[in-house]
Design brief:
heterodimer, A: about 290 residues, alpha/beta, 6-stranded mixed β-sheet, 8 helices, about 35% helix, B: about 260 residues, 5-stranded mixed β-sheet, about 20% strand
Chain lengths: ~290, ~260
């Protein structure tokens, strides 16, 4: 059976820099419930990262992601001065020096990725969704999260990609191929929304229209979470769903705020924040000795 | 007097035919995409069992989530009042009714004459409904009818961290990867849904006698978990999924 939910795993490395020219090499590993990222920074600048699916074993997933990020850099685990583990499986990163919550890491990572003007970060992850308010240094002031319910998470979108037999990376764009915006699906629960969608398909709705209805339901769900802390600009979206224009555009329309354009892979925010914290901690450690 | 009750559930449609208050026919069909057709089918089957013609039926009352779509019914009653009426008629001593169907769970507290004092329901989230066990049986690759007996063989109570059915599916897969016995996972599944139902029961301040109806009453694993969580026994009627329709048919005798 084709795995429509399966998104592309990827690795990136800065082609213009050599870590040998740097001093402080640190990493952050974000072991999420759905995806894992390992991010390497050299002197506080993004140098390389990997992003892959989390397996059934957290320590193993952390190691796989780290190995893949290190691959081709000529670096080994021993070259990393400090490693921070974050995400749902942060305590299960065997080679980390410290675990830091993903809330703190996401804010810190978004501060780097979108600049110090970011005040509200919406992280739409695989199995949770959080809204973080932060200051100009990326320090968390307030947050709310939903990690109890699949509605409004990447996992929910995966379920729909599977149901409609459409690749997850295409569903966002496909959702715009409608003559008119349909009303959102009425069920919040993903399980019930799936039954509702099946009934709509039977009624003759094209897949794109069903997707439009689901994307706007998801946007609405997330907007209620945003309302709880309020959206102070500037506003950024991280996580896998940030790549789904079908949800992002509808969310922007609903809240009347446009999100900053992403210059980096939106899935690395947590790992990158971890690597930046690691750099700070390494500096402190070196100063002490 | 011949009356009929039609319960238009989310997943199945149930019909009960009464002659002077006694059940003479009943039928159940899967609610297809054409609920009307499925209702017609169930109605015809129940009448056949009762040996009566459509012309002989004096009153028809519908209930259930899709009660407005019951083609034959002249009027309808809510699931809450249908359930209460059906249960109290069978068990006058019942004070609490728990109904767990495919896509809804509800707890009702009532008086001895079947009057509803309070009720709580979950229709928003699959975690507190039969759909949860269906999703878990798929993840476990165990037939839904086997899930209950299987969980009775469990030796260990293990916790289920996920509440959401979608997340619980992933958790079940992880537990299987970790070589957790399927029996223990099945029990964890039933414990999880039972705890959701008990929180509904607490909301209405349940008191014995507790009668359990709805399709999930047929799942012995869930019944076991529910009794443990409630810390009291529950009574289960012979045809637990037909009680709503029975209550509607009783309501039809009153009009």
């Amino acid at each position: 059976m084709a795995e429509y939910w399966r998104w592309t795993e990827r690795r990136w490395q800065d082609p213009d820099r050599d870590w040998r020219d740097g001093e402080l090499i640190t990493a952050g590993v974000d072991v999420g419930s759905v995806s894992s990222q390992a991010v390497i920074v050299v002197d506080g600048e993004l140098y390389a990262f990997s992003s892959m699916r989390t397996g059934s074993d957290s320590p193993e997933s952390a190691k796989k992601a780290m190995d893949w990020a290190l691959e081709e850099t000529g670096l080994t685990l021993d070259d990393l001065g400090f490693v921070v583990g974050t995400g749902y499986g942060r305590v299960n990163v065997p080679f980390s020096n410290k675990a830091i919550t993903e809330i703190a890491c996401h804010a810190r990572g978004a501060n780097y990725m979108y600049g110090p003007t970011v005040r509200t970060v919406l992280d739409m992850g695989g199995q949770d969704c959080k809204v973080i308010r932060c200051d100009e240094r990326g320090k968390v002031n307030a947050f709310v999260m939903n990690d109890k319910c699949a509605a409004g998470t990447g996992r929910g979108m995966e379920v729909f990609a599977d149901l409609l037999a459409l690749p997850i990376e295409e569903v966002g764009e496909l959702s715009f191929q409608v003559e008119e915006e349909p009303p959102p699906v009425s069920c919040t629960c993903v399980v019930f929304a799936k039954s509702e969608a099946t009934a709509l398909l039977r009624e003759g709705w094209p897949k794109s229209k069903v997707l439009a209805a689901y994307c706007s339901a998801m946007a609405h769900r997330v907007s209620t979470l945003l309302e709880q802390v309020g959206v102070e600009e500037e506003f950024a979206i991280t996580g896998g769903i940030a790549k789904n224009a079908g949800v992002v555009k509808r969310l922007e329309a609903e809240i009347g705020v446009t999100a900053l354009e992403a210059k980096y892979d939106t899935q690395i925010a947590g790992g990158l924040g971890g690597a930046l914290f690691a750099q700070h901690l390494l500096k402190k450690k070196l100063a002490k000795n | 007097m011949i009356t009929a009750g039609i319960d238009m559930g989310a997943k199945t449609i149930k019909v009960v035919v009464l002659r002077d208050g006694d059940i003479v026919g009943k039928a159940k069909t899967v609610a297809g995409f054409e609920a009307r057709e499925s209702a017609e089918e169930a109605y015809a089957a129940a009448l056949e069992e009762a040996g009566v013609t459509t012309a002989e039926v004096e009153q028809i009352v519908a209930t259930g989530a899709g009660r407005k779509w019951a083609p034959q019914a002249a009027r309808d009653v809510s699931e809450v009042s249908g359930d209460a009426k059906g249960v109290i008629n069978l068990y006058p001593g019942a004070r609490t009714v728990i109904d767990v169907g495919a896509e809804e769970g509800r707890a009702i507290r009532c008086t001895e004459d079947g009057k509803v004092l309070d009720f709580a329901l979950n229709e928003k989230c699959a975690a507190g409904a039969g759909a949860f066990t269906e999703a878990m049986s798929r993840a476990l690759e165990v037939a839904i009818e086997e899930l209950g007996p299987m969980s009775l063989n469990s030796q260990n109570a293990i916790p289920m961290n996920a509440q959401c059915a979608v997340f619980a599916e992933s958790e079940v897969v992880s537990l299987l990867h970790a070589k957790t016995p399927k029996e223990d996972i099945a029990r964890a599944v039933h414990d999880a849904i039972a705890s959701r139902i008990v929180s509904l029961a607490r909301k209405v301040g349940f008191e014995p006698e507790v009668v359990l109806i709805g399709g999930l009453a047929r799942n012995v694993g869930f019944v076991d978990s529910l009794q443990r969580a409630l810390e009291c026994d529950v009574t289960i009627p012979e045809n637990p999924e037909h009680i709503g329709a029975y209550g509607a048919a009783l309501a039809a005798t009153e009009s």
